[in-house]
From TrEMBL:
<comment type="similarity">
    <text>Belongs to the YfgM family.</text>
</comment>
<dbReference type="InterPro" id="IPR026039">
    <property type="entry name" value="YfgM"/>
</dbReference>
<keyword id="KW-1003">Cell membrane</keyword>
<feature type="transmembrane region" description="Helical">
    <location>
        <begin position="20"/>
        <end position="39"/>
    </location>
</feature>
<feature type="domain" description="Ancillary SecYEG translocon subunit/Cell division coordinator CpoB TPR">
    <location>
        <begin position="16"/>
        <end position="208"/>
    </location>
</feature>
<dbReference type="InterPro" id="IPR018704">
    <property type="entry name" value="SecYEG/CpoB_TPR"/>
</dbReference>
<dbReference type="Pfam" id="PF09976">
    <property type="entry name" value="TPR_21"/>
</dbReference>
<dbReference type="GO" id="GO:0044877">
    <property type="term" value="F:protein-containing complex binding"/>
</dbReference>
<keyword id="KW-0472">Membrane</keyword>
<keyword id="KW-0143">Chaperone</keyword>
<dbReference type="InterPro" id="IPR011990">
    <property type="entry name" value="TPR-like_helical_dom_sf"/>
</dbReference>
<dbReference type="GO" id="GO:0005886">
    <property type="term" value="C:plasma membrane"/>
</dbReference>
<keyword id="KW-1133">Transmembrane helix</keyword>
<protein>
    <recommendedName>
        <fullName>Ancillary SecYEG translocon subunit</fullName>
    </recommendedName>
</protein>
<keyword id="KW-0812">Transmembrane</keyword>
């Protein structure tokens, strides 16, 4: 096919332009394609990880029915070590800690709950873990340590529960007047529609006029 002089000049001009900028453009296009492909690959990886974590959590729930603390901890560890950033990991740790408390292994239960505080992304899980640890410390008679733990910052949704636990600890320590104040504060923080509201009110009423 014959080209006109004008077409020939355009072709030569494009060739010169491509020789100058072609490599840069190619590298840019490759980078775009790799990034797009990498994003899809990463999304696929995340989805696969989430499904695997969900499967392991379902397995843990099955193992939980055995009430065997060792087996429950083994199953939970698959999540806390293999998928620590997933939302299932701290929930698995809660199940494992509960099993240990029931088995009388408070030390390991506290270590597991501390893992939640150190690794969970959800602040609510931190608040719940501290509340659970304070309950263990209460049962062990470590009142001062439990109260110090409850003094840590927590979300508003846990305010009433923290004050209620504080009251329980103060009752156990014989500090009745302080306990009454804590229970009253807990009631003030809770909605009357909260099922726990009446329980805290009963605790306060049970103290009567005692000091």
């Amino acid at each position: 096919m014959a080209y006109s002089h004008e077409d020939q000049e355009r072709i030569e001009g494009f060739a010169a332009w491509w020789n100058r900028y072609g490599n840069t453009i190619s590298i840019f296009l490759i980078a775009v394609l790799v990034t797009a492909g990498g994003t899809k690959a990463w999304q696929y990886y995340q989805q696969k990880q989430a499904l695997q974590a969900a499967d392991l959590y379902a397995l843990l729930q099955q193992v939980q029915t055995s009430e065997d603390a060792a087996k429950i901890n083994d199953a939970a560890q698959l999540l806390t070590t293999g998928y620590p950033s997933s939302g299932y990991a701290p929930r698995a740790a809660l199940i494992a800690a509960q099993a240990d408390v029931q088995a009388g292994n408070n030390k390991r239960a506290i270590q597991t709950l501390q893992w939640i505080i150190d690794h969970a992304k959800e602040t609510e899980m931190h608040d719940l873990a501290r509340l659970r640890i304070s309950g263990i410390l209460l049962d062990e008679g470590k009142y001062d340590e439990a109260l110090r733990l409850l003094s840590a910052g927590h979300g508003k949704t846990f305010a009433g529960l923290y004050l209620d636990r504080k009251g329980d600890i103060q009752v156990a320590a014989g500090k009745i007047a302080e306990a009454k104040l804590s229970y009253q504060e807990a009631i003030d923080k809770m909605s009357k529609s909260n099922n726990y509201f009446n329980i805290v009110q009963m605790k306060l009423d049970a103290l009567g006029d005692s000091d």
